[in-house]
Amino acid sequence: MSERLGMSIRHHTGFTYDGVAKASYNEARMTPRSLGTQQVQTSKIAVRPVVPVSTHIDYFGTIVTAFDIQETHPKLEVEAVSQVESWAATLETPLGWGDLRSERLTDRFSEFLLPTHRTALVGSVLDDITAWQKLADVHQCAEAASDYVRNEVFYVPGATTVSATAQEAWDRRKGVCQDITHVTIGLLRSMGIPARYVSGYLYPEQEPLIGDMVEGESHAWVEYFSGSWTGIDPTNGVRETERHIIVGHGRDYDDVAPLKGVYQGPESTQLGVVVEIRRTH
Question: Which end of the chain has fewer CB atoms < 10 Å from its terminal CB, N or C?
Answer without folding.
Answer: N
